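Pasting as-is:
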Amino acid sequence: MDAYAFAKSGKLKLKCHEDKVKRRKRKSPGTSSTRATKVVMNAFSEDLAAHGGWWEISKFVDIIGPVAIQMTGLAPAQEYSSSSTNLPLPIPPAYYLSASDDGFINLGPPRKEGEPPAPEEIFTAVKVSDTKVAFKTGYDKYMTANTSAQNLITAAADAIGPREQFEPVFQDGKAALLGFNNCFVSVDAGSDRAVCRAQKAGSTEMLVIRSNRDLTHNPLNDLPEEERHGTKKAEYLYVRKFQSWQDKKIRLTREDTAALEDAKRVGNLHECMLDRREKMKSDRYCK
C-alpha cells in the first residue's frame, strides 16, 4: 500500500501564523430608518424649493392661514425617451386656483419651478369645524359652491354659510376638496373656471393644498404671553391683570423674586404668585 495514503491532507499550517477569522459587519438597526428619513427630507426640500417655499399640507390641522390650492391633475404629462431614463425628471409647472375681481375662481397661469403662487392665488383658510374649512380670497370674499346648472365656484359671499364650507379629504397621499353638495372641486376644461360637480374624485379632482407657514417651532409660543419674558416680568403682568386699586397704582410685594424661579422649576409658579398677591390683597382670585 502506498505510504502517502496514511498522510493527512488539508491546509498547510505554518508556525506563528494563526488563521484570521472573518467576521461580518452587522448593520445597526437604525441604518435603514435613517436612510429612509433622509430620502423623505430630501424629497420635501426639493418640493419646497420647486414651489417657492410653499410646502404640501397632508393633515387637516395644518390648513390654517395663507394657503394655495394647486390642481395637480391638470399638469400636462411629460414624455421621456428611453435614453434619458437616468436623468432627473423635470418638475411640471404648477397650476393654482386664482380669484378674480369679477367674483369667479379661475385656473391661474402655469408657474415655473421655484416660482411661488401669485397674490390672487393665495387664500386665507378659516376653520369652521373639526373637518370643514372656508377659504377667503384677497378681495375679502369667501369661496362658494353654487347649485346652479354649471355648479360654478364663485367668491362673492361676505359671510360663511353652508355653501362656503369645504371638507378636505386626504387618502393614500392624495387630497381633494368636497363641497356641501357632496361633489368634488375641479376645473372646467372649456372655461378654466373652478366647479364643484364631480361625484367621485378622479385624476382631475386631485389637488395639493400648500402653505408657506414657518415650520420651525418656538418653545416660547407654548407659554402664556405673560410668561415669555421671565418670572419678574410675569409677576408684574399678572398683578396688572388681576389686581385693582382705587388710586390705579400697581403694588408689588417686596419679597425676593428668587422664590418665583424656584417655583417655576418645581411647577407651581402660579400658586406662588397667587400667594404673593394674597399678601397685597385686592385680588379677585385670592383665596
